[in-house]
Design brief:
Blueprint (H helix, E strand, L loop, with lengths): L2 H18 L19 H20 L10 H5 L23 H22 L6 H29 L25 H4 L7 E4 L2 E5 L15 E5 L2 E4 L5 H9 L11 H10 L7 E4 L2 E6 L2 E4 L11 H10 L7 H8 L6 E2 L38 E2 L2 E7 L25 E4 L16 E3 L8 E2 L3 E3 L1
Parallel strand pairs: 8-9, 10-13
Antiparallel strand pairs: 1-4, 2-3, 4-14, 5-6, 6-7, 10-11, 11-12
Helix pairs in contact: 1-4, 1-5, 2-4, 2-5, 8-9
The structure holds fe (ii) ion.
């Protein structure tokens, strides 16, 4: 990637972030709904802080920060950079204003584009590599803007609509058909045999990957079978009707504690009205559709569903081995659904590998592997064999979180299409429900 392409990539990603904010009113930028979710304004400033802290300050001689206090306010968790403003109080920052933060973005953009020009940075230079990291970091925050905003709007009994989908599909204005609930035709779930064996996982050379995807290494994967598609709301309702949330036998101990402590009786954003389940989405509230993938479940719920179904969740190694030959296509943020969509003919057939010589039987007919929902795996988030924490403050990016979290794979309807890879490892605590996370099952061969 030469300097012109790098500048274009920079502009494209930064503009995409601001594009997500177009439907927002000033109040929407500021409020924080819980500690784990940050205000949109904070995301906008923090992603700019990242470029300022890791590129402009060390690499742009004479660079003058817009405001010295921003370093403290918008540092997320980098102890090597300095102390941070309390995460749980980000919603109290009415100042700097939204206008101030947009001015901050403009200031950083101007200096970043000038720096790229004067250094003629390509993607292979030190600055270019940092810019690429900063852009992937910003894409992670693009997804968080949507999930955090959804959580905020979801607290409001008015159920504000973020955006109508262009097609109207799944939106609040969609006609409510009485037989919506059971009429959906979704391909039957089938079990796809996977050969397993001695395999390699992790990122190989070429293209960007986060440090936690490296090094590529050998693993032995016993033969297994993978569910052909995601679990639907209809199937999850069967689990609920069978007493899924009432029977401790299906639950991990900590999961059962979470059910009782939080009063869980359905996934997040589900509401029961007159014995019918409704769903809050970024497109508004509507009845649940039996054929759409279930979403906003914790690891505990995904695991309990799998136990109820007498199967299990895949390991991250199984998931990656199965996904590697598949086309990276699916329902991503660019599809403008902001919600998983039912599997039908519109879904790309991911069983067609791109530029891969392996026989199609390697992965069979796996659908919805990329996009729609992050898929919980049974694997704890730990470092790969041979992993070395990167030196300096950026070593804090991923490494220090490798404890007590589970890996999720595949990206979601809020993930930018060019952000995801078969080796990509997302991670959240097992009780987290506000991400677009769903369920794919696996079992022994
Ligand atoms: Fe960040």
């Amino acid at each position: 990637m030469d300097v012109t392409e790098l500048q274009a990539a920079y502009r494209r990603v930064r503009c995409a972030t601001e594009g997500l904010c177009e439907p927002l009113q000033a109040e929407d930028y500021v409020v924080q709904s819980m500690t784990e979710a940050s205000p949109v304004k904070w995301h906008l400033a923090h992603t700019s802080w990242f470029f300022e802290t890791f590129i402009l300050r060390p690499h742009s001689p004479g660079y003058r920060v817009l405001d010295e206090q921003y370093e403290f306010l918008f540092n997320s968790y980098y102890n090597a950079v300095g102390p941070q403003f309390s995460r749980s109080h980000r919603g109290l920052l009415t100042r700097p204003t939204v206008a101030n933060v947009f001015a901050y973005r403009e200031h950083v953009d101007e200096h970043m584009l000038t720096l790229l020009e004067t250094t003629q940075a390509t993607a292979e230079t030190d600055i270019g590599r940092l810019v690429t990291l900063g852009l992937h970091h910003e894409q992670q925050h693009q997804e968080l803007i949507l999930t955090d905003l959804k959580h905020l709007l979801g607290q409001n009994p008015l159920h504000p609509v973020y955006r109508e989908t262009p097609s109207g599909a799944g939106s609040a204005t969609r006609p409510e058909s009485g037989d919506d609930f059971r009429s959906g035709a979704v391909p039957a779930l089938t079990w796809q045999e996977q050969a397993g064996g001695l395999s390699e996982v992790g990122h190989a050379a070429g293209g960007f990957a986060f440090d936690n995807e490296k090094p590529r290494h050998q693993v032995f994967v016993a033969p297994f079978t993978m569910a052909s598609r995601l679990i639907t709301c209809g199937e999850y309702l069967e689990f609920m009707s069978a007493g899924g949330y009432q029977e401790p036998e299906f639950w991990l101990s900590e999961g059962w504690d979470a059910v009782r402590r939080n009063g869980w009786r359905a996934p997040l954003y589900w509401e029961e009205h007159d014995s019918e389940w409704h769903l809050f989405t970024l497109n508004g509230s509507r009845r649940i559709r039996a054929e759409e993938p279930v979403c906003h479940v914790s690891y505990f719920e995904a695991d309990a569903f799998a136990r109820w179904a007498r199967v299990r969740l895949p390991t991250e190694q199984e998931w990656e081995v199965a996904a590697e030959p598949l086309a990276r296509d699916g329902n991503f943020v660019e599809n403008l659904n902001w919600h998983p969509v039912p599997l039908d003919a519109a879904h790309p057939d991911q069983s067609v590998a791109t530029g891969d010589e392996r026989p199609p039987s390697h992965s069979g007919q796996l659908r919805q592997m990329f996009g729609d929902v992050w898929e919980w795996t049974a694997s704890p988030y730990t470092s790969y064999p041979g992993y070395r924490t990167p030196p300096g403050a950026l070593g804090e990016y991923n490494a220090k979180f490798m404890c007590n979290q589970l890996v999720l794979r595949g990206g979601s309807c809020a993930t930018p299409r060019d952000h995801i890879r078969s080796t990509y490892r997302n991670f959240f605590h097992p009780q987290a429900r506000w991400q677009f996370a769903g369920i794919r099952l696996a079992k022994e061969s």
